[in-house]
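To the team - D-ribose complex, inputs and output below.
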Amino acid sequence: MKIAIAADHGGFQLKENFKKYYEKQGIDLIDLGTTDETSVDYPDYAAKMAEAIKSGQATLGILICGTGIGISIAANRYHGIRAALLYSDDVARLAHEHNNANVVVFGGRTMTESECFRRMDIFLQAKFEGGRHERRLEKIEQGC
Ligand code: RB5
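Output:
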């Protein structure tokens, strides 16, 4: 699995800590920026992530902004992107089992680092259940 990560300034520090967390497990995350805490616009990082997923450069994305909300809204504007804000442990599991999220989202200013790492582990251990959930995802992809 190739995992890409991107954040705005509100998520920069958590992004760096995620990279270290995975480095210790022998996994290098593909870093799409930002590169420091200078103020930037989160839609630009959602766009970079959408491109990375659509091109196949990454199979899973991690996006972070201050709350996780703005960057979720932006990412979900792209066809083929299913971005889920992992605001609880249960949601982390369900986002994979039911929604087959290909981008997981965190709030750098609203969640603790240990919550985020734990929810990432839960998400990765879960499996998409398919069936009725597949049908629902197809309806989303057909658009409105
Ligand atoms: C940036 O100040 C902040 O608005 C952004 O990180 C995010 O929380 C938006 O939803």
